Structure formats: C-alpha cells, structure tokens
Amino acid sequence: MRVLALLDGTVVDPQTPLFRADDLGVMRGDGIFETILVVNREPRELGPHLDRLERSARLMQMRLPERTAWQRAVRAVIDAWPWDTAGQMALKLVCTRGIDGGDGTPNGFAMGMTIGADTIRKRAEGVTAVTLERGYATDLMERAPWLLLSAKTLSYAVNMAALREAEARGADEVIFTATDGTVLEGPTSNVVLARGRTLLTTPPSTGILKGTTQGALFRAAEQAGWETRVETFPREALFDSDGVWLASSVRTITQVRAIDGTELKADADLHAELTRLYESNY
Amino acid sequence: MRVLALLDGTVVDPQTPLFRADDLGVMRGDGIFETILVVNREPRELGPHLDRLERSARLMQMRLPERTAWQRAVRAVIDAWPWDTAGQMALKLVCTRGIDGGDGTPNGFAMGMTIGADTIRKRAEGVTAVTLERGYATDLMERAPWLLLSAKTLSYAVNMAALREAEARGADEVIFTATDGTVLEGPTSNVVLARGRTLLTTPPSTGILKGTTQGALFRAAEQAGWETRVETFPREALFDSDGVWLASSVRTITQVRAIDGTELKADADLHAELTRLYESNY
C-alpha cells in the first residue's frame, strides 16, 4: 500500500509519474529525505525529523518548502491511509533541488508505505550484522563539509550497496566503521550499545546522522535513571558490551544478535526494557 | 533545448513526468548514468561509454537494459535533435534500479541537452580550480567494493556540493585529492598533466572513474609520439608540471589556468596541440 501526497496537500495516484527526467533528484540524487514512523495516525518525532530535513537542506545549500507545507502533506497522507487494515506506516518525505537549469524551485512529496512483515518481525527477533569500512576518518566532517557527511541526501547508493554486501555475507544489517575502527552508524540506523545501566551512541561530529529514534530512546532512558553517553567507541566495544541495538524510525529499537559471525549478549529482558522505554515516549 | 527518448526509441516531451515517486532513482539515487558528447550527429566514444555503463551496473548489481536498447535511444535523440540550430549536444543516459519493492525492471532514458555557452567558452579559455579532500585512501576501492568507488552512480550529491564549494572560493572547478595527497579526479572530469612530451593521469585503481575523453586523448597522443603514463602523482605535481587539463565528455580538454589561487603554466600552443590530438579521433 502506498499513499502519495503533494506539498499542497493533494493526494495523487502513486503510480502516476511525478518527476521529470531532468529533475536533479533523478539525474544526480540531488535532494534530501526523511523517513518517519506513523502509528495509529500519530507521526513519531515529527519535529526532530523536520529539523533534520532543514539541517540537510542547509548543508546542501538548497531551498526547502516551508515547514507548514510538509506538515500539510503529512496530514494528507495520514488522513488517506487505510488505518483499519494497517496500523503503522513508514512515511517518507522527499525533496529534490528541482529541474536541472531551472529556477531552484524544489520538488517534494510525502509518501506513506506499508512496513513489511519482515521488518516488524525483526523488531522482536533481532538481526545479525556485519561491520564494513566506511573509508572515512572521524574528523573529516568538520574540515570537508562538501562531502555532505551528516546530511540525509538522496544519494544513498552506497548505503544500499552496503546492505547488499551484508546479505551476500548472510547477515541482515551493516555497522559502518571509520578508518581508525570507530563505530559509526548503520546505512539506515544508529548504533546503541549498553554497558550496565549506561547507553552509548556515536557522536554526530563523526559525520553520522543524528538519530531521531536514538534520541527518543535516550530521552526516555534518562528519565528512567539510565546514564547516557554520546561518545566514540571502537568496534571491539560491540563485543564487550551488554547488548547492541540499531535504532531507526521504521525498525525502532532492533537488537543485534550477532556481529561478523560472533554471537553477542542478546538479553531478552534488556531488549524488552529498551523497547518499553522507547515506546513510553508516545 | 532538451530531447528525451525512451529505450524503445519513442521520443517524448521532456516536460512530461517520467518517474514515479517510488522509483529507486528518485528515492535513493539508486542508478547509474553516462554523459556523451554528440557533434554533428556523431556520438563520441559511444562504445567506451556503454562499456562503462555496463561496468557500473555490475558494480551496482543491477539489471541493465541491453546495449541495443541504449543504441536505439541514442539514435532516436540524435534524429530528433535540431542540428541546424545546435551543432553539439550533451547526451545523458540514465538508468535506475526501478520501482521500490518492484521486480527489478530498470527504468532508463536518453536525453539530449544543450551545451551552455559558458562550457564551450571554457574549452578555449580554460578554468581555475581548487583542490579539495575526497576523504578516501587510494587503496580503498579494492578492499571495500560496497563504497561503489569507480561506479558512475546517480548518487552525485557530493560531486555537486564540491562544485558549489569551488564557486564559493571563486573557482570554476575541483580537483579531488586522497588522504595521502594523491590527485584523484574532478567531480565530473579526469585530471591530465603534461611533463615535457609525457602525459600523465591517475589510475582507476585509486577508485576514480576511467575517463573516456582522457582515453581518447591518450590514444591519439600515443599515435603522435607522446609518452603516456597512468600512475599516481601528488598534489604538488600539479604545480610542477608543463600544464594541467580536465578531460570530460562535454568539456572535452579544458586547460587549468590556476589551482588554489596559484597560476599554472598554461601554454596556449600546448593546449591547442592537445585539443587537436583529441579532435583527431573524430
């Protein structure tokens, strides 16, 4: 099931072509996006997602339709979604730089998409992952802003290729590492690690995306008395931890059961506790 | 002027939307492309461009329509182009992985586009460039194929951001360097350097695109008695040379007059000679 809305709030047939061949989004992946989880008509972390969309637009030096237009499109998709048959959806916001050689008017849409049974199952059952080199140093972002590290652009071919590599190795997911072995992020997720009653995640200063779901989990965990730390940690720390999770809007808090073929502590009670903490936000 | 043809050879209105919102090309820059120079109805280096498109598809593990389909679309655009008013065009071949969640049928097109007066002027007058870090080591490609180095994917947001950075610094072009200072490539070109009667360019094993225009120049230069070398050289070599050029299909052989604010030797006779060599292929 797919429901497509334009930024003026019109709902249109998702099978009707929407983008010209010379849209810069088509020709060069020149645009930005967000993916939002909507449960029972309520978009989760909509504010942080729109904040991040605006941040990506700034890093890309591209015009972005105003916030109210995105809110209108989100509402239109939610109103048109068949909630009686599907209680959750992944809501994608996409914005391109517009037509090549045009006046810079961006083209955007909001699209609600079914969340696969496989994804929902993994939230409960966990995943296996491989670590893959991302090829970057952790201090690159600050000195090389043209590399668009930390912007959520439409140029996601590498993220998809990494997931194919994981599949070829018999795993579900990827955890990227920096040149010095620092854990970065997944292709579409943030990495969270537990050590006793402390949760850790990698700082955005390494060039990764600031996680909206990770942020929601940490917010709830702090209120429940957990310590939270945003600091770098090496690949080895994944194995020497009380649990590893991938946090993403659609997968929510997914437990990692094994990395590079090595089983991890994957405590079911701890997973249930973190899931409860995350869900307590809504 | 834009002329758009589908892979069945149909010419369609370029202003009519062609891609669905959920095409993977739109949503994730998940596809590949080539840009070919066509002069007086003759596509230059069509074979090498189609070879490279096929190589990119292999690296991306995506299905690609057969070669005859691309040749048919190229012919359709050339036949429909107004040659009496525009003697050259840039011909773009684009292929996406198709619809998200679909059966993997790729979506492609060929589009002829006017070459701007600015581009044609730069072929004669040269450009200024800045060097920018690409953030990668030169040995990364071989050990990390999931990073898609050397594939010409639609995920070109970084290439475009680098060109904006050049513009912000008052320059026309970018020359990327690796972490060890090795000269890599431009965002849409290869770097060629002259030392006496020797031409040098960076090897594709560093993760750069194999240049079709650079290849044509080297082919002609060898026949004319030049020595050619495909080997790495450091940023400093740019300044300690008898000339630097950017080779690309649409810009052909563009001389670099200054890099990072430092004037280079930009000998007009040598530029004329290299241009003549390149043109002698056609």
TrEMBL record, chains A, B:
Domain of life where this protein originates: Bacteria
One GO BP annotation of this record: carboxylic acid biosynthetic process
GO MF annotations, alphabetized: lyase activity
Pfam short name (any one): Aminotran_4
Record key words, sorted: Lyase
Tagged with keyword Secreted: no
KW Lyase (keyword) present: yes
GO cellular component, one term: cytosol
PANTHER family: AMINO-ACID AMINOTRANSFERASE, AMINODEOXYCHORISMATE LYASE
NCBIfam families: PRK07849.1-1 (NF005886), PRK07849.1-2 (NF005887), PRK07849.1-3 (NF005888)
Similarity section: Belongs to the class-IV pyridoxal-phosphate-dependent aminotransferase family.
Name of the protein in question: 4-amino-4-deoxychorismate lyase
Organism: Saccharopolyspora thermophila
